[in-house]
Design goal:
343 residues, alpha/beta, TIM Barrel, three-stranded antiparallel β-sheet, 11 helices, 18% strand, binds (4S)-2,6-dioxohexahydropyrimidine-4-carboxylic acid, binds zinc ion
Length: 343
Amino acid sequence: MTTFSIRTPDDWHVHLRDGAQLTQTVAATARSFARAIVMPNLVPPVCTVEAARLYRDRINAVIPPGSSFHPLMTCYLTDGIDPDEVAAGYAGGVFAACKLYPANATTNAAHGVTDIRRIHPVLATMERIGMPLLIHGEVTDADVDVFDREVVFIEQVLTSIVRDFPGLKVVLEHITTADAVDFIKESGNQVAATITPHHLVINRNAMFQRGLRPHAYCLPVAKRERHRIALRKAATSNSPQFFLGTDSAPHPRAMKESACGCAGIFNAPVALEVYAHVFDEEGALDRLEAFASEYGPRFYGLPLNPGRVTLTRSPWQVPDVVDVGGQPVVPFLAGETLAWRLQ
Ligand code: DOR
Ligand code: ZN
């Protein structure tokens, strides 16, 4: 096959940032995706309906001409979050979901939740109104090995959320382990997971290839090869519990190439092409459409996109660096050749 088309996909997890970066991040995502779930980990975080509305206005102001891109906003959960504010934002069509960051789990997660019991009231409200909970699933205890933090989160926190709120729609974001795949499969269809392009392509060795590779560092961190294989199997399994979410997360090159580099991989310039490459390698190109364009909207209760996108087998080289808000950012797979090109 040298060309194929699928229903226009959506990105169910992206960091568009703010300010000068928005023009390029929005264009990079709108290039491939009709809608995107926009992460709220700005400084300060997006915790109110008003903040989300203003952020959405700033995104809408830079959507490229001719694009019908539609941002879906999220509410950043804090210990003190007001359930009525969350419910009002959902009813008013501003919030599409809430995002749970355990406090200090990742970039701009300092205001995250310190103890899941503190947000039981808002989780009860969300369960009642059918609003999805999106989870960064890692514990933050310094004494838990960084490669075990997802598994320990599943054991210590996620299991109790799913047990205590059986009707709550939950997305475990950017899963990185076979354990997460198993947990999702053992849960009902109200529990799902997103899978990133980078976790399908790299394992933890990528961070240590003949030296320290900051551009392969993200959170949750890539794990052993057997986990990458489990993720590829899950993504191509045609299960409605696994769908596309890029976690595209740009940081200026200087912030990555640093003594204490930021976590995050900017994959929006290559994301759909990389998914196509992975599904092709797995002999599952016929399953890409459901993963990219059907299972996400079905989970969120949104209509499928009407349009189509076409991918052609036509090798192209990923740029070494791209401009994001006047600063150089190294994209995922910089300098490498990709087989599939988006028309
Ligand atoms: O690698 C990551 N980068 N993981 C996250 O959870 C946050 C993101 C960011 O905002 O940079
Ligand atoms: Zn993220």
